[in-house]
């Protein structure tokens, strides 16, 4: 399954053409703190590790992004159109 999904991502998600997803990612306080701690611990001159797929191509399909804050979590609203 992983190989198939990676191939789909690399090819621009052809099996999902015409799909649209509207959703919300809820990121809790613990995850945010862990991400910030890892980011702060990285040397500044370090080259980022390459993504296992073309993340930029996937991000090009995302629109209507809004961030909301609630106690102990961040909510990211988005639309993904393929």
CATH architecture: 2-Layer Sandwich
What spatial form do the alpha-carbon principal axes imply? globular
Q: How many DSSP-defined strands? A: 3
User: In terms of structural class, how would the helical and strand content be classed?
Assistant: alpha+beta
CATH class: Alpha Beta
Description:
The structure is a single chain. This protein is α+β, with helices and mostly antiparallel strands and 82 residues long. The chain has a single domain (13-81), classed as Cell Cycle, Chain A. The protein is 33% helix and 33% strand. The protein has helices at 2-10, 29-41, 55-59; strands at residues 20-28, 62-70, 73-81. It has a three-stranded antiparallel beta sheet. A hairpin with a 2-residue loop joins β2 (62-70) and β3. The protein is globular.
Helix and strand arrangement:
Layout: H1 2-10, E1 20-28, H2 29-41, H3 55-59, E2 62-70, E3 73-81
Antiparallel strand pairs: 1-3, 2-3
Characterize this entry briefly.
The protein is of the alpha+beta class and 82 residues long. 33% of the residues lie in helices and 33% in strands.
Which features would summarize this protein structure in a list?
single chain, 82 residues, alpha+beta, Cell Cycle, Chain A, three-stranded antiparallel beta sheet, 3 helices
């Amino acid at each position: 399954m992983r190989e198939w999904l990676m191939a789909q991502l690399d090819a621009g998600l052809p099996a999902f053409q015409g799909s649209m997803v509207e959703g919300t990612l809820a990121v809790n306080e613990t995850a945010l703190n862990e991400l910030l701690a890892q980011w702060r611990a990285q040397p500044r001159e370090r080259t980022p590790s390459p993504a296992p797929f073309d993340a930029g191509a996937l991000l090009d399909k995302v629109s209507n992004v809004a961030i909301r804050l609630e106690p102990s979590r961040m909510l990211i609203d988005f639309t993904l159109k393929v």
